[in-house]
Amino acid sequence: MTYTRCGRGLPRSTMREPDRQHSPLVSVPAPRRMTLRRSATAEDPFAFAASVREGLAHAVKHLHCAWFYDEEGSRLFEEICALPEYYLTRAEERILRRHAGSIVSGLPERAELVELGSGSAAKTRILIEELLARNGHLRYVPIDIAHGMLERSSRALLEEYPLLEIHALAAEYQEGLEALAREAPTPRLVLWLGSNVGNFERPAAAQFLGRLAKHLLPGDRILVGIDLRKERETLERAYDDSLGVTARFNKNLLARINRELGGHFDLASFRHGARYDEHLGRIEMYLVSAKAQRVPITALGMEVEFAEGETIHTENSYKYSLEEIAELAQAAGLVPDQQWFDTRRAFSLNRFAPRPVT
Ligand code: AVI
Q1: DSSP H helical segments within the chain, as ranges?
Q2: CA 262, 146, 285: angle at the middle one, nearest 5?
């Protein structure tokens, strides 16, 4: 594989260099208690085109999983989260409900809540309510590449919680970090939930957390939702559900190329594949060509040739053992602070502290 980062962040190579003279963020008018800014990358149609061209011209065809999350993909992902087989969301939600009090314990009173890859922010409500009950007021900074979803979820939160202030950022993770770094240092709890870390290669996950830690104050905490290694059957069912929602989510990448780049993919000529590589501890998702075929992509001026059974690798989703979580923290320069599990020990929430400077 030529790429190392996935999830709701983009591969570095497809990102435009930020304009040094002007802020890369554009403010969108919003109600008084809310600001919404969009990064240049979140809007950039050339980044998608360049990434698709690179991935489909490669000897081992791949598409970056950050591109899953257009409007339709974000909607399908919400459907996945409600599936009985996709245990991750419910397990994480149960942990949050049960331990919300201890998760926010010890944070300074003025601590703001930052969330990377906030999506619909459904589970975040649990911590928002806990912090509002404790402090009366809360500043929430959701960061997500899917700007439609970000705007809708932020407005819904404002309706529900009059004492909330929201500063939303439609951006990929790295830009989100850079934007945080430009702000005055504030006590923070940073959330990275939903096993989004699993869509990063292991070393890239440590590197990203390490960079995040550099922007934190000694009392700040990072809360990371990490899916645990388990038996193959449960994992493969979670990524190949009986209703075929994950298959539609995966194939939406081809539909998106058809919509945005004049692709001519026949979705029925590809099937969804998900397999667990136990050695690497990751679910791999593929699109498999059901026949030998050539697919033109007009806007890219290219024709992609597939042999029967040839695959496009679309996602890795890493699962962790407890030792691997400890190694991740160590490599990122973080100190494991506290850990919570659901009763089946399928999923973990991990609170990390920045390593004290000596
Ligand atoms: C967003 N991410 C953590 C999901 C996962 O489990 O890796 C994406 C997903 N892909 C298929 N189902 C869910």
Answers
A1: 40-43, 45-57, 71-81, 87-104, 124-135, 147-160, 173-182, 202-214, 232-238, 245-261, 322-332
A2: 70
**239 in ligand 1 pocket by Cβ < 6 Å?**
yes
Ligand 1, atom 10, lies closest to the CA of 239
Backbone CA torsion sign across 112, 117, 119, 123: negative
The residue contributing the CA closest to ligand 1 atom 3 is 196
Question: Could you tell me which of 62, 321, 59 has the C-alpha nearest to residue 202?
Answer: 321
Its pTM stands at 0.91
Q: Please work out whether the CB of residue 316 comes within 6 Å of at least one atom of ligand 1.
A: no
DSSP-derived secondary structure letter, 320: B
Cβ of 7 closer than 6 Å to ligand 1, yes or no, is: yes
Q: Name the CA dihedral angle for 280, 283, 286, 288, rounded to a multiple of 10 degrees.
A: 90
Q: What backbone torsions phi and psi does residue 62 show, to the nearest 5 degrees?
A: -150, 155
Residue nearest to atom 12 of ligand 1 (CA): 239
Q: Are 8 and 121 in contact (CB under 8 A)?
A: no
Token readout for 268 is: 């029925």
The answer to whether residues 70 and 101 touch, using CB atoms and an 8 Å cutoff, is no
- Could you tell me which residues come within 8 angstroms of residue 358 by beta carbon, excluding any fewer than 6 positions away? none
The SS3 assignment for 77 reads helix
Distance, CA of 357 to CA of 23 (rounded, Å): 31
Over range 25-41, report the average pLDDT. 69
Q: How confident is the model at residue 5 (pLDDT cuts 50, 70, 90)?
A: very low
> 271 pairs with which residues across the strands?
288
